[in-house]
Amino acid sequence: MTNSMAHSRGRRNPADGRAPVRRVAATVGVVFLVIGVLGFVPGITSSFDDLSFAGHQSEAKLLGLFQVSVLHNIVHLLFGVAGLALARTVSAARTFLIGGGPIYLVLWLYGLVVDYDSGANFIPLNGADNWLHLGLGVGMIALGLLTTRDLNRRR
What we know:
- It is a single chain.
- By secondary structure, this protein is mainly α.
- The protein has helices at 3-8, 20-38, 70-86, 90-113, 127-146, 149-154, and strands spanning 45-46, 61-62, 66-67.
- α2 (20-38) packs across α4 (90-113), α3 runs antiparallel to α4 and α4 (90-113) packs antiparallel against α5 (127-146).
- The protein is globular, with a radius of gyration of 18 Å.
- The mean pLDDT is 87.
């Protein structure tokens, strides 16, 4: 179906005319929103009754693997909202990805050094979270760079 046919039927492909970095930032934002919401869903989050606002005492685990708390879920939701809001322009979408990636790398480093049973583990984090944060950090930076490399060459 051509664009004109889809447009004439009232449906528009939301990716039409959008720079790749904007589509990626929006997609990452949606993923963060979904993860944030799923952290509040019993069954998808195991030990849901042990979900606390913050701290290492929260025994709730998203998908039975990633330790979460209300605060941890809220952080995911906020990153999701930021991703969608910043996906409106190329420069803001790039900033979200290349700026958000290092935040997750810092969180990964924090998870490596924090004692999981201490009050300093307020988010809370576990080994699975650490690997995920490393992947998110590297992935967001890579996506921000790769989807704007043509823009960088033009400058």
